[in-house]
Input
Amino acid sequence: MSDVFIKFFLLGLVSFGGPAAHIGYFKRRFVNELNWLDMTAFGGLVALSQVIPGPGSSQIGFAIGYHRAGLLGGLAAFIGFTLPSFTLLLLLALGSANWLGESWFNGLIHGLKLMAVVVVFDAVLSMYNQFCTKSIAKILMLTSAVVTLLVGNIWGQLLILVVAAGIGIFCLAPKSLNGGSDGRGNLSFTLVNVKWLALFGTLFITALVLLNSQHPLGQIFAQFYQAGALVFGGGHVVLPLLEMSVGQHIGSERFLTGYALAQAVPGPMFTLAAFLGAEVFSAKPVIGALVATLAIFLPGFLLLLSALTVWQGLMHRSQFRGAIAGINAAVVGLLLAALVSPVIASAIYSLVDLILVLLGFWLFKRFRLNILWLVLGYSLVGVMFGLIG
Output
């Protein structure tokens, strides 16, 4: 468990770039380097994270920790990966951000956004090479990217995943699995874990009741739990839900400040809850941040635990593997769309920005640089450009 915590804590210190980049970090570290799980199992976890509500990359990290060391391993992975960004956003909410308007800090944020373009592009390219080897998978990937960019809402994304799964069943299902089985033999697997699903439902009903509570902590738990339970697609998608509830208490300007800071720190975007929770419950900001953060992550983890055992069993079925192959191809398209908007759209404003991204990507691939070198290089370049205007 301590080994899981340390590995994820070190990743949490440098995991800039959002969910798309986090998937790339996890694949590189836990599949390629440590061999904690193979690519098939990793792809299954990626697909599962796309079809249940909650923070996708954090759910993958939790599942990897669970695979390695059980429930405590999952908790260790979550705490380790989330702790750096939680701490930074809490400190910023507590008032140690008097330099937010400084030119050097704005330059630093811009430099980190340029680094995010490099990391996300590398993640998209890596997953494309892994999941889009067949023509039908490439078509699904491109269609997913185009539809996502044109439609731009969560229902369109869900429809893409459902259609991709159906096409995958008929066009991408392997003819045989390991050992020559066609996946239709006498395979047994555990059904949905009812206790976790029941806990999820009980807390969801409790959150509905607490929405009208006079106690601020009860309202915080209710608002953030509902947001985590209803959102598909990660951090950016959760913003409208939180803005409609929490944003009314702290003001839109402060809300958007928290959002910008959440993009500038490493780790999951959902730790925006730490900033917002501290702002809403200003009497005891640390408690407010803890309640909000736990509430927004909890529903996704409970649903993951509910589905994990049946998901692993289904992975032995040929047609189910085909559905997952279709979903994975569509996910690559979703990540490609995310690379275009908001990652590139919010980072590259000039020819100089484009050159810095291309140079960074070439150095990253040519010399297989550690992510820390990218963080340092783009931070220094960003600060320099910020100071000289």
Observations:
- The two ends are 47 Å apart (CA to CA).
- The chain has a mean pLDDT of 84.
- The first helix runs from residue 2 to 14.
- The chain has one domain: 2-189+304-388.
